[in-house]
Design goal:
The complex is a heterodimer of chains A (about 180) and B (about 130).
Chain A: H1 7-24, E1 44-45, E2 55-56, E3 66-71, H2 76-90, E4 95-100, H3 104-114, E5 118-124, H4 128-132, E6 140-144, E7 150-155, H5 163-174
Parallel strand pairs in A: 3-4, 4-5
Antiparallel strand pairs in A: 1-2, 3-6, 6-7
Chain B: H1 2-12, H2 14-19, H3 35-45, H4 64-78, H5 83-94, H6 109-133
Helix pairs in contact in B: 3-4
The chains are: A alpha/beta (about 180), B mainly alpha (about 130).
Chain lengths: ~180, ~130
């Protein structure tokens, strides 16, 4: 019997093995922004809360690297990351917030309940800034250097183990 | 009892309602006045992928973010932008992912080349078979 007869079966098992292997791999739904390494697009957002100013993209062109946090009061993982944002603030990091499709009254309630780590919070009712920087969900956090260039994107809520990574990325952006 | 259950269920519905609190973007569900522009927008929206609901186009999806993307597409079309320029604007931000229109690239070329190779291989095998028979 020729070895060639076994070839289709071998290919079939090869395919089965590949499919089986892929099934064991965790599913990665994250859509990475291709804006990392590029400058922030120009935008100007009105304030989303009563006690913080809105956000002008030119603010990111002034000196120190900052975090740009995309969040919303209706987003549950945003509650989970609140303590980590607070910790980053304690470390001296400036965090600028963009609230997606949100109302000031809800924003104020969220900040009262979970703390306010932001120096500015812009109101993005049409997801324009979110689309402009290639973010596909809430929460997401971008490291922006002193010249307004995005250097890093964190997708999903910030867990305690992500804090050192973000601090390191901020340090690199500051060099 | 029934009232109590109804009340409990009404309470459970609150978080769901929260995201719908803010009205959708003006052009999320409103067509453009010019039928030709609306047709161009519609055609483009059917080939753009929703980022929240990953197997639907933004034309098909009721996700708020898809509505915001439709708003972008419609106002840009109304502004006179070319559909392909809008697609490129989105692909500059989300990569190939956001487009349902397949492009030949470093990662996708096998999808285009393999079928051709398989057809050629099949033709070769058939030719040998039939030549052997006659």
């Amino acid at each position: 019997m020729s070895w060639r007869l076994w070839l289709p079966l071998a290919i079939f098992f090869g395919f089965l093995g590949l499919a089986g292997y892929q099934l064991t791999q965790p599913k990665d739904d994250a859509i990475k922004s291709t804006m990392v390494g590029k400058g922030l697009p120009y935008f100007m957002l009105p304030p989303a809360s009563l006690d913080r100013p809105g956000v002008d993209s030119r603010y990111f062109h002034q000196g120190e690297p900052k975090l740009l946090n995309i969040w919303a009061s209706w987003c549950l993982p945003c509650i989970a990351e609140a303590p980590q944002l607070e910790q980053l603030k304690q470390e001296g990091v400036e965090i600028v917030g963009v609230a997606i499709r949100d109302k000031p009254v809800d924003v104020m309630r969220f900040l009262t309940d979970h703390g306010n780590p932001y120096t500015r919070i812009g109101r993005d009712d049409l997801s324009e800034v979110q689309l402009g920087i290639g973010s596909s969900g809430v929460p997401e956090t971008f490291v922006v250097d002193g010249k307004g260039v995005i250097t890093y994107q964190h997708i999903g809520d910030i867990r305690p183990e992500h804090v050192p990574i973000l601090l390191e990325e901020l340090r690199k952006a500051g060099q | 009892m029934r009232v109590l259950i109804a009340l409990l269920m009404a309470l459970m519905a609150v978080p769901l309602a929260a995201q719908g609190d803010v009205p959708p973007a003006p052009y999320a569900y409103r067509q453009l006045d010019d039928p030709a522009q609306e047709a161009a927008a519609q055609e483009l929206m059917e080939t753009l992928r929703c980022l929240k609901c990953q197997s639907q186009s933004i034309a098909d999806s009721d996700a708020p973010m898809a509505g915001d993307m439709r708003h972008q597409v419609r106002i840009r079309i109304a502004d006179g932008e070319e559909p392909e320029a809008i697609r490129r604007w989105l692909m500059d931000r989300y990569g190939d992912y956001v487009s349902y229109e397949p492009v030949m690239s470093a990662t996708t070329w096998p999808l285009f080349v393999i079928p051709i190779l398989l057809v050629l291989l099949a033709m070769l095998i058939f030719r040998r078979r039939f030549r052997g028979r006659t």
